[in-house]
């Protein structure tokens, strides 16, 4: 299951994704945690010391390796140089599984021990000014998108991505790559402003979107969120002393997290798991091709000097059970 946490800076994306990751790990589920947020804090929120978090390998710096691995023997991608972040898999491409060892995880993922077991953590690396503009080919999240487009995940295994709701994710199609998107919103006008924009994009592409109200203090806050986002509101959570203690560098055992927060996390998981029955690999593949052609036209062809539409394998559908070459 591919799950994104999006929202405004400061809304609590990193906090809630880290709690959700801890919840999954505590249940024994395999998890890949991905930090694709502008402010790279997921490692720290998962309990890494500052020096260890800073030493994590950046996905963005391993793009050539990632592309070379994924293209495998796909004749439509005979060189990594013409692969862009939206280049779709086809016959001969190597696909990724959540539970396996492969050169991409070897280079880019690091284990993080949590109560209940280790998760794999991957980070995009810190964003620079150039990443925040419109220069698509600089996109720090490009490596994440490539990986998601080559990932065949089943139920009960999870990829959780902490990311921003930036325009780059709408232009590239990144926002369509998830089984479930949790939009974290504080009960303020600013907090819910992202929802309106996200919902429009989401509606056009059949994206499953639910709002998680955060830093909610009482009924008035809940009423406000309900009035603003309607049925999209899935759960609300309040301030957590457990989180405060963790941020002081004194992380209590995860089971000591406040019970209402545990209950909220169970509801997030149920909502995410429930989408599996509606998963549609053909649509997933169609959407990646759609955004690839769009990016090819708007900058990719010019940038690479190649006709990137030729990378599309018309007969290929990404799905569970496809066998990939070694
Ligand atoms: N439910 C919560 N309880 C306590 N502190 C919280 C909660 N949600 C967020 N915070 C605090 O608010 C700040 C911003 O949260 P963060 O998760 O870093 O936001 P974002 O990733 O969206 O920028 C952090 O200091 C975090 O610890
Ligand atoms: Mg964050």
Automatic annotation (TrEMBL):
Gene3D superfamilies registered for this protein in UniProt: P-loop containing nucleotide triphosphate hydrolases
From the UniProt entry, list the residue stretches annotated as the region Disordered: 70-93
Q: Which GO terms describe its molecular function?
A: ATP binding
List residues of the CobQ/CobB/MinD/ParA nucleotide binding domain: 7-219
Compositional bias (Polar residues): 74-85
InterPro entries per UniProt: CobQ/CobB/MinD/ParA_Nub-bd_dom, P-loop_NTPase, ParA/MinD_ATPase
Keywords assigned by UniProt? ATP-binding, Nucleotide-binding
Q: Check the record and name the PANTHER family matching this protein.
A: ATP-BINDING PROTEIN, SEPTUM SITE-DETERMINING PROTEIN MIND HOMOLOG, CHLOROPLASTIC-RELATED
**Record's protein name:** ATP-binding protein
Q: Which organism is it from?
A: Streptomyces galbus
């Amino acid at each position: 299951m591919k799950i994104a946490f999006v929202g405004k800076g400061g809304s609590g994306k990193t906090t809630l994704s880290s709690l959700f990751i801890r919840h999954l790990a505590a249940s024994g589920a395999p998890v890949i945690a991905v930090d694709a947020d502008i402010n790279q804090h997921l490692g720290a929120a998962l309990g890494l010391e500052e020096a260890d978090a800073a030493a994590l390998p950046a996905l963005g710096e391993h793009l050539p390796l990632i592309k070379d691995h994924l293209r495998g023997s796909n004749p439509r991608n005979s060189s990594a140089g013409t692969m862009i972040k939206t280049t779709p898999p086809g016959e001969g491409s190597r696909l990724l599984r959540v539970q396996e060892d492969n050169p991409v995880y070897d280079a880019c993922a690091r284990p993080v021990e949590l109560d209940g077991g280790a998760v794999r953590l991957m980070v995009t690396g810190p964003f620079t000014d150039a990443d925040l503009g419109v220069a698509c080919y600089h996109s720090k999240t490009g490596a994440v998108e490539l990986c998601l487009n080559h990932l065949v995940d089943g139920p009960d295994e999870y990829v959780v991505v902490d990311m921003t709701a930036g325009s780059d994710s709408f232009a590239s199609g990144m926002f369509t790559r998830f089984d479930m998107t949790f939009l974290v919103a504080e009960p303020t006008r600013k907090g819910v402003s992202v929802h309106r924009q996200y919902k429009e994009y989401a509606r056009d592409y059949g994206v499953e979107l639910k709002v998680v109200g955060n830093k909610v203090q009482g009924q008035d806050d809940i009423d406000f969120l309900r009035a603003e986002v309607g049925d999209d509101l899935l759960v609300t959570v309040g301030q957590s002393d457990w989180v405060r203690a963790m941020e002081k560098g004194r992380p209590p055992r995860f089971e000591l997290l406040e019970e209402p927060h545990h209950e909220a996390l169970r509801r997030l998981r149920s909502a995410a798991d429930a989408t599996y029955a509606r998963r549609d690999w053909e649509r997933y593949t169609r959407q990646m091709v759609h955004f690839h052609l769009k990016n090819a036209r708007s900058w990719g062809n010019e940038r690479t000097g190649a006709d990137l539409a030729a990378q599309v394998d018309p007969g290929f559908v990404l799905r569970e059970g496809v066998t990939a070459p070694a």
